[in-house]
UniProtKB/TrEMBL annotation:
InterPro entries: DUF5110 (IPR033403), Gal_mutarotase_sf_dom (IPR011013), GH (IPR017853), Glyco_hydro_31_AS (IPR030458), Glyco_hydro_31_C (IPR048395), Glyco_hydro_31_N_dom (IPR025887), Glyco_hydro_31_TIM (IPR000322), Glyco_hydro_b (IPR013780). One of its GO terms (molecular function) is hydrolase activity, hydrolyzing O-glycosyl compounds. Coiled coil: none annotated. Residues 584-671 form the Glycosyl hydrolase family 31 C-terminal domain. The keyword Hydrolase applies. Residues 253-575 form the Glycoside hydrolase family 31 TIM barrel domain. It comes from Sporolactobacillus shoreae. Transmembrane segments: none annotated. This is DUF5110 domain-containing protein. Residues 687-759 form the DUF5110 domain.
Length: 795
């Protein structure tokens, strides 16, 4: 396609390479991030994921040597050959990623004629997907290569051996490993081999495919039905650095409001108003913390978005105000489909201003969703995004605290949208094939902007469909799972891979959406939910109740226990998301992210790290009352429940009665904790608790804690406090703990600190030289100090 290499020119950080038949671009974004672009469909590229890119190429050189171009950055060595064949090495010459020299050789599916017909008659789905790829890159597969990322795909953590498709899909049948496409399209993956990691972000919004050696073990590949060959190579060598690089390109999740980390209760549907209030009252009566209640589609008047059914909610403003007084924030669903209905303001306005996607003749396109015949706002048009953003005020003025964007793949009940439905694409007219995968992305962007403009607070948007970069605008959930043990199991790799794909704030429907939950399944699911960023219980219409009290006393007590634990952990979780705003590191992480030198972590599907300090090994099988836990090598671990110390680098068997989720704290951790509250803001937190798991002798551990008002953007102009806590353990076993402030900008600073010191029986404690009273219970010392201090603990 490209022909032989003819020459090159440099323009700032861009190298234009001239081939016989086509010029291509290589941009050095950073020493370890390189962008490859071959214009196939369009000369110009307009990424929908990468905005406001900062380019820091460092020093690099370009040389033509024996008819190959050699590009050297401070981190990478790139060889470019005829036909735009590219090999990438690290600076020591280790090959990281090389173009495969042969051509594609898909495996054979055997069987023909009558055999296929009778199998199809029985209901077997035998149609192999035909992808008609216009763009394809084949890369040489190496032994021991592991693959991660790709957003919310089903299956396991490591994607080697599988094939996936990026085409946002709403399929409510039970999600299983054989699903190639899901609700989200995040065309980004990470490869890990012999402790070296790199990522590839294929920035193409058309239907695209990824094959990690399913087709043939000699190569892995990515390709698309149209668009350009447009991808970024992001070098590690650590997975952390790859995720950091990817989120510098596509953005990180902005720090959310603190209450969004509280427990959230959803249901299709809490209507009428009386039912919603019943739910609200029950949480408070039973002292089960809850911050957020959801209204699903039934609150609307005939499913018309931005309206209320006045029979079910006669006075929504009053209802929402009273719920707010009880500490609740109400989030309402808003789907994209606008009911085709003359006299309905949103429809009339949209038609008048040509805000809807149109068929090839310019006639507004109609398909069916909940309201019946519906129109699809063209969110790829900035004017439409502004209009949609403005509409959010209708909801926020009523007291709505956040918006839930659903059905934005976009879903359609009357067959898929035809390819030729036209979209404005910010002035460069295109069709459905290019916009489909970014429809939800643009909808979230508009919703986010609207809430921000209307409230001035950090917006809370939750979306089902997304593309790379949507993390800047919304949190996501994994769509219509079911109350199945397999879906609880699968939620872990799905959420971990979402986190590795830049989506730091994500969750699954706790308890499962479709089908009927059981007491045991809910008990185990809430144990996972407590450690996932978005902690929302949701279930479908016509399924059995699934609130924390819906089963028996034991289940209710287990729900209370883990939801309360979540509220104690809030400052820790908030710290993770604060760090994430700059590092891009998610809350829920695979063990390999912090233990990349330990290959035993590479395929652990059923354990995860919540931040760096907490390892969660939940039970995800019915009837299981013990499980094997792998504790990674490199440090020791403290059993959260028994406080027993366990060496890393081994498999252990941990008892796990129904109310116990095995949790391990990394030795040396300093964990900030809040008291239990029924909702965020119920108590004014004047005292911070610090649980200290002392480091080994001779070691020091550090923890940085962040505090702000939890809701506004004032932190961006300095209205926050940053504390640094450190614990240094001497050879004689004594400990020096320092509580210092690195930044003082938020006026409601803590007035005191409660320290809980594990594995210590001190003889004397002083703070700034003054004696401090303390209590010892079992193997744990507790004491309070009035302010920041230099604390010495002698044994
Ligand atoms: C979709 C959503 C689900 C919601 C339902 C009704 O199935 O995924 O969460 O409850 O629509 O709005």
């Amino acid at each position: 396609m490209f022909g032989s290499l003819k020459g090159h020119r440099e323009q700032d950080h861009t190298i234009v390479i001239e081939f016989e038949r086509k010029n291509v671009l290589i941009e050095i974004i950073e020493p370890s991030i390189v962008h490859f672009f071959a214009p196939i469909a369009t000369e110009r590229r307009a990424s929908k994921a990468v905005e406001n890119l900062t380019v820091n190429p460092g020093v690099f050189s370009v040389d033509l040597q024996n008819s190959q171009l050699v590009i050297k950055t401070e981190k990478l060595l790139i060889h470019v050959f005829d036909e735009f064949v590219v090999d990438v090495f690290d600076t020591a010459g280790n090959r990281l990623c090389a173009d495969y020299r042969g051509s594609a050789r898909p495996f054979v599916r055997r069987g023909s004629g009558e055999g296929l017909e009778v199998a199809a008659e029985e209901g077997h789905k035998l149609e192999a997907e035909k992808h008609r790829l216009k763009i394809q890159a084949l890369k040489k597969m190496e032994k021991d290569m592991f693959f991660y990322g790709l957003g919310d795909k089903t299956g396991h953590l490591n994607k080697r051996g599988y094939h996936y498709k990026m085409w946002n899909t709403d399929d409510p049948s039970p999600h299983v490993e054989s699903f190639e496409a899901m609700y989200k399209s995040i065309p980004f993956f990470i490869s890990l081999k012999e402790k070296q990691a790199f990522g590839i972000f294929f920035d193409n919004t058309y239907e695209s495919v990824f094959d990690f050696g399913k087709e043939n073990d000699d190569y892995y590949s990515f390709g698309a039905v149209d668009g350009n060959l447009d991808y970024y190579f992001i070098y590690g060598p650590s997975v952390k650095e790859v995720v950091g690089g990817y989120t510098r390109l596509t953005g990180t999740t902005p720090l959310p409001q603190l209450w969004t980390l509280g427990y959230q209760q959803c249901r299709w549907a809490y209507t009428p108003e009386q039912r919603l209030r019943e739910i609200a009252d029950t949480f408070r009566e039973k002292e089960i913390p809850c911050d957020v209640l959801y209204l699903d589609i039934d609150y609307m008047d005939g499913y018309r978005v931005f309206t209320w059914d006045r029979k079910k909610f006669p006075d929504p403003e009053k209802t929402l105000k009273e719920l707010k007084d009880q500490g609740y924030k109400v989030v309402t669903i808003i789907d994209p489909g606008v009911k085709k209905d003359k006299g309905y303001a949103i429809c009339d306005e949209g038609l008048k201003n040509r805000y809807f996607a149109a068929d090839k003749d310019g006639v507004p396109y109609i398909n069916k969703v909940w309201p019946g015949d519906s129109l699809y706002p063209d969110f790829s048009n900035e004017r439409v995004r502004k209009w949609w953003a403005g509409n959010q005020k209708i909801m926020t003025d009523t007291g709505v605290a956040g918006i839930w964007n659903d059905m934005n793949e976009p879903a359609s009940f009357n067959g898929p949208l035809p390819d030729d439905v036209t979209f404005n694409n910010d002035g460069v007219l295109t069709d459905h094939r290019e916009i489909h995968n970014v429809y939800g992305h643009y909808m979230s962007k508009a919703t986010n902007e609207g809430i921000k403009n209307a409230t001035g607070q950090r917006p809370f948007v939750i979306t089902r469909a997304c593309y790379a970069g949507t993390q800047k605008y919304a949190t996501v959930w994994t769509g219509d799972n079911q109350s199945l043990w397999e879906h609880l199991r699968m939620s872990l790799p799905m959420l971990i891979n979402l986190g590795l794909s830049g989506i730091a704030f994500c969750g699954t429907d706790v308890g499962g959406f479709g089908f009927d939950c059981t007491a045991e399944l809910l008990s185990r699911w809430v144990q996972v939910g407590a450690f996932t960023p978005l902690f929302r219980n949701h279930s479908s219409i016509f399924t059995r109740d699934q609130e924390p009290w819906a089963f028996d006393e034991e289940t209710e007590a287990i729900n209370r226990k883990y939801i309360q634990l979540r509220y104690r952990l809030l400052p820790y979780l908030y710290d993770i998301l604060h760090d994430e705003e700059t590092t891009g590191l998610p809350m829920i992480r695979p063990l390999l992210m912090h233990y990349q030198d330990d290959p035993k972590t590479y395929e652990i599907n059923d354990e995860f790290l919540c931040g760096e300090n907490i390892l969660v090994a939940p039970v995800v099988g019915q009837g299981e009352r013990a499980r094997m836990v792998y504790l990674p090598e490199g440090n020791r671990w403290v059993d959260f429940w028994t406080k027993g110390i366990v060496e890393g680098g081994q498999y252990i068997v941990r008892d796990a009665p129904l109310d116990v989720c095995p949790i391990y704290i990394k030795e040396g951790s300093i964990l900030p904790l809040y008291p239990v509250q029924n909702f965020v803001g119920e108590k004014q937190i004047k005292q911070l608790t610090l649980e200290i798991y002392p480091p080994e002798k001779g070691r020091e551990s550090n923890y940085v804690h962040y505090q702000d008002d939890g809701s506004s953007f004032d932190y961006r102009s300095g209205a926050y406090n940053l504390y640094r806590f450190s614990a240094l353990r001497s050879e004689d076993g004594s400990i020096r703990i320092r509580l210092e402030k690195e930044h003082a900008g938020y006026k409601m600073a803590y007035e005191s600190f409660k320290l809980v010191l594990h594995h210590m029986k001190p003889s004397r404690i002083t703070a700034n030289g003054e004696l401090v009273a303390f209590e010892v219970f079992k193997n744990q010392a507790t004491f309070k100090i009035a302010d920041l201090a230099d604390v010495r603990i002698e044994i």
